[in-house]
From TrEMBL:
GO cellular component, one term: cytosol
InterPro entries: 2-MeCitrate/Citrate_synth_II, Cit_synth_Halo_CitZ, Citrate_synth-like_lrg_a-sub, Citrate_synth-like_sm_a-sub, Citrate_synthase, Citrate_synthase_bac-typ, Citrate_synthase_sf
Reaction catalyzed: oxaloacetate + acetyl-CoA + H2O = citrate + CoA + H(+)
Active site: H264, D320
Organism in which the protein naturally occurs: Halodesulfurarchaeum formicicum
GO biological process: carbohydrate metabolic process; tricarboxylic acid cycle
Alphabetical UniProt keywords: Acyltransferase, Transferase, Tricarboxylic acid cycle
Protein name: Citrate synthase
A GO term, aspect molecular function: citrate synthase activity
SUPFAM superfamilies, sorted: Citrate synthase
Documented EC number(s): 2.3.3.16
Pathway named in the protein's UniProt entry: Carbohydrate metabolism; tricarboxylic acid cycle
Length: 383
């Protein structure tokens, strides 16, 4: 039997999902039928998390119960802090520290070892992971800077609580709201590499901790996570160097290097999340009276659009183009950006694992053999 090779599984349908829908030609994104613009503007990240794990947005009572469960699960045990100190002392990257921590978190969860078909046990694990990720990341960053971790508070939302634990002071409400929107925008995006990795592991009926550990590892690769860090590093280079943003991008184009924050495997037009983040960056910049990062990005986009014509070729700004500058202005270290992505995307990973395991089939693709023809074995003394 001969079949067409689709390297990287590009364009291959491997599963059905009700979580997110992407129209790459129209530049539209929906979570369970709701447009991303409405969710980013009107819903909290916790509401979106509930939506992706269930079939609809929560009622006020459902949200209150859900938030209470999440907030009670935020704290981590001393053993996790000891592990984070060890990882910080060894110079691990935040994304690697997060991956190791997920495995450790499973050791303190009584639900570990539950029947893999027990949906409520899987949801319980998912709530613990999503609740503890902000605590783990904030603690790791403080430990590597020689500071004591800040205990989570139960009176703050997930986004505000992360910023509080990271900096040790309660964040400005606008900062917390903008970060909350950024988390919503990154929560799910179809069967990207890390989500598919989580599903492959979940299809073996491994538990949620194992699936999320694998997904974090997939996200750590530079071809998946890290683009917003690349964008911010480019902006810092422009800010510190002799070239204007336009001169810098011309040199980059002449060298043939990839443009960070531009182009997407699914979108042929501007990523709808980029439009929202541009607006939020403008809001943040106006509040802080520091607009130069926004101005650099606008100059880059203007040149690439009007002079180079990249959008006409199906290459346009993606979600990473503006998110890095937002995180940077919120005081988040550059090497934390990919881990922040994981913190948000864990929502989608868990949602897809829950969905797939409800009607599970082991994911087992085939590979085309291109090795030697059949050969006879030669004993070692005759070789």
């Amino acid at each position: 039997m001969t079949t067409e090779l689709k390297k990287g599984l590009e364009g291959v349908l491997v599963a059905e999902s009700a979580l997110s829908d992407i129209d790459g030609d129209a530049g539209e994104l929906y979570y369970r039928g709701y447009p991303i613009e409405a969710l980013a503007e009107e819903a909290t990240y916790e509401e979106v998390l509930y939506l992706l794990w269930n079939e609809d947005l929560p009622t006020a009572a459902e949200l209150a119960d859900f938030e209470a469960e999440m907030r009670e699960a935020r704290a981590v045990k001393p053993g996790i802090i000891d592990l984070l100190q060890l990882l910080a002392d060894s110079g691990e990257r935040p994304i690697s520290a997060l991956r190791s921590s997920v495995s450790m978190l499973s050791a303190e969860d009584p639900a570990t070892g539950s029947d893999p078909t027990d949906l409520e046990a899987a949801r319980h694990m998912g709530r613990r992971i999503s609740a503890k990720f902000p605590t783990v990341l904030a603690a790791f960053d403080r430990l590597r800077r020689g500071k004591e971790p800040v205990e989570p508070r139960e009176d703050l939302g997930l986004a505000a609580n992360f910023l509080y634990m990271l900096h040790g002071t309660e964040p400005d409400p606008v900062d917390a709201e903008i970060f909350d929107k950024a988390l919503t925008l990154h929560a799910d995006h179809g069967l990207n590499a890390s989500t598919f990795t989580a599903m492959v592991v979940g299809s073996t009926l491994a538990d949620v901790y194992n699936s999320v550990t694998a997904a974090v590892a997939a996200l750590s690769g530079p071809l998946h996570g890290g683009a917003n860090q690349d964008v911010m590093e480019a902006l810092l280079e422009i800010d510190e160097g002799p070239l204007t943003a336009t001169e810098w991008i011309k040199e980059l184009l002449d060298s043939g290097e990839r443009i960070p924050g531009w182009g997407h495997r699914v979108y042929n037009v501007r990523d709808p999340r980029a439009k929202i983040l541009e607006s939020e960056l403008r809001r943040l910049s106006n509040r802080t009276e520091d607009c130069h990062w926004l101005e650099y990005l606008e100059d880059l986009e203007t040149h690439l659009t009007e002079e180079v014509g990249l959008p006409e070729k199906g290459v346009a700004p993606n979600v990473d183009f503006y998110s890095g500058a937002i995180y940077y202005q919120l005081g988040i270290p550059l090497d934390m950006f990919t881990a922040i992505f994981a913190m948000s995307r864990s929502t989608g990973w868990i949602g897809h694992v829950l969905e797939y395991q409800a009607d599970n089939k082991l994911i087992r693709p085939r590979g085309r053999y291109i090795g030697p023809d059949r050969r006879e074995f030669v004993p070692i003394e005759e070789r």
